[in-house]
Amino acid sequence: MYELNNRGVELSIIGKLDEAIEVFTQALISSPSDFNLLFNISLVYIKKCDYQRALEYLLKTVEMKECDENLREIGVCYIKLKKYSEARKYLEVCLDRFSSSESENVMGVCLFLSAQYTEARIHFEKAVKLDPWNRDAWFNLSDTFMELGMKREAKMAKYKYKLLENK
Fold it and tell me: How confident is the chain (167 residues) per 10-residue block, as mean pLDDT?
């Protein structure tokens, strides 16, 4: 089982997504409740931009065990599907239980796309506080400051983003 999982991950990394799905699907026949297989096949579907299919597998993983990664990826899928209230529901659970820089950033994106800029700012600021190296969060914070008319703060956040660009 682990060999098939590792093979599927390797195929995904090199961009052979359909082959990776075949390997994970084959492995799931004998282990339909394997958390890692379900999570990894969902990540391949996300790479393929098949967010609805990814959700099918991610929701199965949440039934087994809630963790930062699967709840966050559910949020990402719902954001990509423009279902922001659904995304927010899962991201709130994620942040209540696990709070990570990545999840704070995704919640910020969800709120930004819902034009809730003040709330988005709070989450982007938490993201960069938890991980000052989170380039995406600095970029998103800069955009949010611009939307809020805070040009000086936007410049500072953009500057920090650009500093990390060379790291």
Answer: 89 96 95 95 98 98 96 98 98 96 98 98 98 98 98 98 85
Q: What is the 3-state secondary structure (H, E, C) of the chain?
A: CHHHHHHHHHHHHCCCHHHHHHHHHHHHHHCCCCHHHHHHHHHHHHHCCCHHHHHHHHHHHHHHCCCHHHHHHHHHHHHHCCCHHHHHHHHHHHHHHCCCHHHHHHHHHHHHHCCCHHHHHHHHHHHHHHCCCCHHHHHHHHHHHHHCCCHHHHHHHHHHHHHHHCC
* Domains parsed from the chain with CATH numbers: 1-65 (1.25.40.10), 67-167 (1.25.40.10)
Q: What is the pTM of this model?
A: 0.92
- Token couple for 141: 């914070």
